[in-house]
Design brief:
Thrombin, subunit H, ion transport, 32% helix, single chain, 7-stranded antiparallel beta sheet
C-alpha cells in the first residue's frame, strides 16, 4: 500500500508544500484527495525532505486539515491507442466528449522520450497548405517547427484552421492532426471544432482543450499531452502528424505565475530564466526519425503582447524554431487575408525542400525575386509619404502598382480558397510581369524567357 500524507505544511494558489517526505522522484505524479474530489498533481521541487507539488486544478477551497496526498513512483502517463482520433480531451487528457474513457495496455509519459540527435532525419518534403504566401515564400516542410507570430484580434485561428483543412503532401499521403488549446475562450474552441467538422477532417483530429476558465496550471500539461499523442501516432503508427498549439503566450504566462508562486528569481519581464529551455523541450519534440515513416510537424501560435516581436516569448521562440510566419496588423486593417507580412517571415528549411524534385524548378528564382521586389516597394512607399506619389518616377510608380497587385492578388485569398502549388507559382510570375525586365535581378535567363517572355538574341 502506498504511503499517504495528511500533514500539509503550506498551500499557496496551486502549490502544496509537504515536509518529512521520503523516496520521492522529481516529476512524479501526485494524487490529491480533498472534499470528496480527486485531483492530479506533479512534484516540481525537492529540497531535502520538503516536497513542492503543483496541482492541476482549482485549489481555492483547499484546507490544510482535509487533504490526503499520495505519491506515485512515475511521471504523469496517459493511455493511447488509435481511437483517440476524432476525440476531445481536457488539458490533462481526460475525455470531455461523450466517447468514454480510452483503454489501452500501454501508458505513455507526457514528458516524452528524448530523441537521439543522430537518429533524426533532416526534413525535406514540402507540405502544400494551399496558401500562396506560405507555399511560395515561407514554405512548410514535413517535420519542421514553424510558428505563427500574431497579435490580439488577428485571424491566426482562421489561418490555422485553413492549414488543417488544406494541408497535404505531394505524395498524396494523408495527415492526421493534433490540436492543443491553452487559455482560449469557449467560442474559439467551438470555432475550431466547427471548422474541422465542416472540412470533413474531424475524425482525423485529436483535440486537447484548456479553456480560459479552466485551471491555469493545466496549461503546463496540455501541450505535453498533445505532443505525446502526436509522437505515438507518428513513431508507433507511422502517420504524418501536424500539430497546432495555441496560444503559447498563455502557456508562458502560466509558467511565469508558477515561477512567481515558487519565489524563483525572475528574468526578462518577470518570466523565469528557464523559459528558453522549457519552450525548447516542447518545440524539439517535432521532427522525423530515420527509418520511421511517420513525422511530427509543429505549428505553434503565439500572440505577441503589444505586437512586439522582441518580446521574450516570440524572441526565444524564433531562436528555437526554424523560422516564423508573421501576421501583420496593417495588412489586416487593409482587409487582406491572410495578412502575412513576408518580409519578417521566413522558413529556414525551405531552401532544401523546394526546387526540382520537391516543388518546381523555378520556385527558388520566383521566391527570391518576389522578396527583392516587395522589399523595394516598402522603400518607395516610405519615400512617397515624404515627397508625394505624383513626384515619383515612372519606375517607382510601377513598383507601387506591383506592390498593390502583390498584396491584393497574391497575398490575399479567400479562407476557403485552396490554391495549388502550380497556380501560386504562375500567379507570382504574372504579377512580376508588371515590372520592367531590367528590374528582374534574381531570375535566371532561362526562367526570364520561359515565364516573363524576355527575348534574348
Amino acid at each position: 500500500m502506498k504511503k499517504q500524507y495528511t500533514k500539509i505544511k503550506k498551500i499557496e494558489a496551486s502549490i502544496i508544500e509537504l515536509d518529512k517526505v521520503e523516496d520521492i522522484a522529481y516529476n512524479a505524479v501526485v494524487k490529491v484527495n480533498t472534499l470528496g474530489e480527486n485531483f492530479i498533481g506533479q512534484v516540481v521541487k525537492i529540497d531535502d525532505d520538503t516536497v513542492t507539488v503543483e496541482v492541476f486544478g482549482n485549489t481555492q477551497d483547499f484546507s490544510l486539515n482535509d487533504i490526503v496526498v499520495e505519491f506515485e513512483e512515475k511521471p504523469l502517463e496517459i493511455p493511447l491507442n488509435e481511437s483517440i482520433l476524432g476525440r476531445t480531451f481536457n488539458g490533462i487528457a481526460r475525455p470531455i466528449d461523450d466517447g468514454g474513457e480510452i483503454y489501452s495496455d500501454k501508458f505513455y509519459s507526457v514528458e516524452g522520450n528524448p530523441l537521439n540527435p543522430v537518429a533524426r532525419e533532416y526534413p525535406r518534403n514540402f507540405i502544400q497548405t494551399g496558401i500562396s504566401s506560405i507555399d511560395i515564400l515561407t514554405t512548410l516542410i514535413r517535420g519542421q517547427k514553424l510558428p505563427i507570430f500574431s497579435g490580439s484580434g488577428m485571424p491566426h485561428n482562421e489561418i490555422a484552421a485553413q492549414i488543417v483543412r488544406q494541408a497535404k503532401l505531394k505524395t498524396e499521403e494523408d495527415f492526421c492532426f493534433v490540436f492543443a488549446a491553452m487559455g482560449i475562450k469557449k467560442d474559439e474552441a467551438m470555432f475550431f471544432e466547427d471548422a474541422f467538422t465542416k472540412a470533413g477532417v474531424k475524425d482525423k483530429v485529436v483535440m486537447y482543450e484548456n479553456l480560459a476558465d479552466d485551471p491555469i496550471m493545466e496549461r503546463l500539461i496540455t501541450p505535453k499531452c498533445a505532443l505525446t499523442a502526436a509522437e505515438y501516432l507518428a513513431f508507433e503508427k507511422n502517420k504524418h502528424v501536424l500539430v497546432i498549439i495555441t496560444d503559447i503566450t498563455s502557456y508562458a504566462e502560466a509558467l511565469r505565475e508558477v515561477s512567481s508562486i515558487r519565489q524563483e528569481v525572475p528574468s526578462r519581464k518577470g518570466y523565469p530564466g528557464y523559459l528558453y529551455s522549457d519552450l525548447a523541450s516542447l518545440y524539439e519534440r517535432a521532427g522525423m526519425i530515420d527509418g520511421v515513416n511517420g513525422s511530427v510537424t509543429l505549428i505553434p501560435i503565439l500572440t505577441m503582447p503589444n505586437d512586439d516581436i522582441t518580446h521574450p516569448i516570440p524572441d526565444l521562440t524564433g531562436y528555437i524554431t526554424e523560422g516564423q510566419i508573421v501576421i501583420d496588423r496593417s495588412l489586416d486593417q487593409k482587409g487582406i487575408y491572410p495578412p502575412i507580412n513576408i518580409l519578417p517571415s521566413l522558413s529556414r528549411l525551405m531552401k532544401d525542400g523546394i526546387g526540382e524534385g520537391f516543388t518546381r524548378s523555378d520556385h527558388d528564382d520566383l521566391m527570391n525575386q518576389l522578396y527583392e521586389s516587395y522589399s523595394k516597394v516598402q522603400e518607395i512607399r516610405n519615400i512617397s509619404q515624404i515627397v508625394g506619389e505624383d513626384d515619383l518616377s515612372e519606375l517607382d510608380k510601377k513598383y507601387l502598382d506591383f506592390g498593390k497587385n502583390f498584396e491584393n492578388r497574391f497575398l490575399s485569398q479567400d479562407s476557403y480558397e485552396n490554391r495549388s502549388l502550380e497556380d501560386s507559382l504562375d500567379l507570382g510570375w504574372n504579377i512580376l510581369k508588371i515590372l520592367p525586365i531590367e528590374e528582374i535581378h534574381r531570375v535566371s535567363k532561362e526562367n526570364k524567357e520561359k515565364y516573363l517572355g524576355a527575348k534574348y538574341d
